[in-house]
């Protein structure tokens, strides 16, 4: 099993993730990680920071000559904007005078709950870590981790299902590759040209009005074998683990698998995915996939489908009412440099979170200390399923 920790402030010198439990003998492409970091930075509706940053990963442990060696992996992404924040984010107490206190909490952000909980007087001490800049390392992590399952034919893709109240129609019979091509080309990561124009117009309108937008992203994973996760213990259930990972992302307010909340409104006879047996392919098949690819917390072998609702961003250019934490007087919320809509990025981040959880469940089932050992375990299991 993999473990990880991220560290780093939004305007600190760098962001870090340490990943422990990585088997040896995997080829790792840093270009692939940088490609995903670039995907996270794209999207119509992002603010000025995306132009400054251009994230690039640096490896400082765990990889030699392109291969994993079994030791912890440390990935680092430099905050290029740090040069403008060196004094305000200084470690040195002598620079304290440089800080301009942030005292007007933004409704919807971690500002108020954070300063009260940690007994702090500068909201910046909270917002620097609460910021979704942290998701840079979730994407680096997910992008790294998915390279451990790509050799086994598992692919994961995130795209946008809706922004605000505008829903995109995603072609139902398109392959994951086709969906990837369509959504990657779109500035709002939708596979629907008509919805794309309406969404762009809505983002423009929101920007003019100093407002923000949320949305729903969908993540699909194909190529999963039956049997990842387990029904036997609460914290081993694949859907539970994925939901936890997704809910831990900034601004997430809801997660649903397959038919999700819609499943509550239909009869069982209209919901459950009926089972057949294909004697030629020697496998059980389903006529539908309303479950979203898990039953009893175990992958069914059907595509995993999960939808994630992100709320609108909390920093409004036309700020909401607040109260100053120092004077307690009525005030308007503070304004940080901010996006209007980050949903195209959120799709890439959710994709990374799902990929990581699948990798972890995969290593739990087929784990070994090397790629060769995992490959043996995996092919032995596939044979067992065929012979069942
Ligand atoms: C990709 C992404 C970008 C975000 N950018 C901003 C932003 O520019 N301004 C903002 O106020 N919140 C932004 N957020 C949301 C906040 O980080 C989040 O609302 C805050 O940390 C409070 O956490 P919570 O919403 O999970 O309760 C972003 C979230 C995501 C996923």
Shape: globular
Give the overall pLDDT as a whole number: 96
What is the count of helical runs? 10
Query: Cα distance, first to last residue?
Result: 27 Å
Query: Which kinds of small molecule does this entry bind, naming each only once?
Result: flavin mononucleotide
Strand proportion, as a percent range, falls in 15-25%
What share of the residues lie within helices? 25-40%
Class inferred from helices and paired strands? alpha+beta
Weakly predicted, low-confidence segments: none
Spatial order of the strands forming the largest sheet: 8-7-9-15-10
Q: How many DSSP-defined strands?
A: 17
The largest pleated sheet is described as: 5 strands, antiparallel
Global Rg:
22 Å
The arrangement of helices and strands along the chain is EEHHEEEEHHHEEHHEHEEEEEEEEHH
Structure description:
- 31% of the residues lie in helices and 20% in strands.
- It has 388 residues and is an alpha+beta fold.
- The strands form six sheets. Strands 8-7-9-15-10 form a five-stranded antiparallel beta sheet. Strands 1-2-6-3 form a four-stranded antiparallel beta sheet, with helices on one face. Strands 4-5 form a two-stranded antiparallel sheet.
- A hairpin with a 2-residue loop joins strand 4 and strand 5.
- Helix 1 (30-41) packs antiparallel against helix 5, helix 5 crosses helix 9 and helix 8 (238-247) runs antiparallel to helix 9.
- The longest helix is centred in the C-terminal third of the chain and has 24 residues, at 343-366.
Short description:
With 388 residues, this protein is of the alpha+beta class. 31% of the residues lie in helices and 20% in strands. The strands form six sheets. A five-stranded antiparallel β-sheet has the order 8-7-9-15-10.
């Amino acid at each position: 099993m993999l473990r990880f920790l991220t560290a780093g402030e939004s305007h600190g010198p760098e962001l870090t993730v340490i990943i422990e439990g990585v088997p040896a003998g995997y080829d790792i492409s840093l270009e692939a990680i940088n490609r995903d970091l670039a995907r996270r930075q794209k999207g119509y509706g992002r603010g000025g920071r995306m132009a400054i940053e251009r994230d690039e990963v640096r490896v400082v442990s765990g990889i030699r000559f392109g291969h994993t060696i079994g030791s912890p992996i440390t990935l680092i992404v430099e905050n290029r904007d740090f040069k403008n924040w060196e004094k305000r984010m200084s470690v040195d107490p002598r620079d304290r005078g440089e800080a301009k206190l942030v005292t007007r909490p933004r409704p919807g952000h971690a500002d108020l709950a954070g300063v009260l909980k940690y007994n702090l007087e500068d909201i910046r001490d909270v917002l620097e870590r609460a910021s979704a800049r942290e998701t840079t390392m979730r994407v680096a992590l997910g992008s790294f981790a998915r390279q451990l399952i790509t050799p086994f034919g598992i692919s994961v893709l995130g795209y946008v299902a809706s922004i605000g109240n505008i829903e995109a129609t995603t072609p139902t019979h398109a392959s994951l590759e086709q969906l990837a091509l369509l959504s990657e080309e779109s500035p709002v990561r939708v596979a629907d040209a008509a919805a794309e124009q309406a969404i762009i117009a809505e983002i423009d309108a929101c920007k003019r009005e100093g407002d923000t937008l949320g949305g729903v992203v969908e993540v699909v994973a194909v190529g999963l074998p039956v049997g990842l996760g387990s029904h036997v213990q609460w914290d081993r259930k694949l859907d539970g683990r994925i939901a936890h990972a997704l809910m831990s992302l900034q601004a997430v307010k809801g997660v649903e698998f397959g038919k999700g909340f819609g499943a509550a409104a239909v009869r069982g006879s209209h919901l459950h995915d009926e089972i057949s047996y294909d004697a030629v392919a020697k496998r059980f098949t389903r006529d539908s996939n309303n479950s979203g690819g898990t039953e009893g917390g175990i992958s069914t072998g059907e595509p995993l489908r999960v939808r994630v609702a992100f709320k609108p961003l909390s920093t409004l250019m036309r700020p909401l009412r607040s109260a100053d934490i120092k004077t307690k007087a009525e005030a308007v919320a503070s304004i940080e440099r901010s996006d209007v809509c980050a949903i195209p990025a959120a799709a890439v981040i959710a994709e990374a979170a799902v990929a990581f959880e699948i990798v972890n469940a995969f290593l739990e089932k087929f784990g070994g200390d090397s790629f060769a050992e995992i490959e043996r375990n995996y092919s032995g299991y596939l044979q067992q399923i065929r012979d069942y």
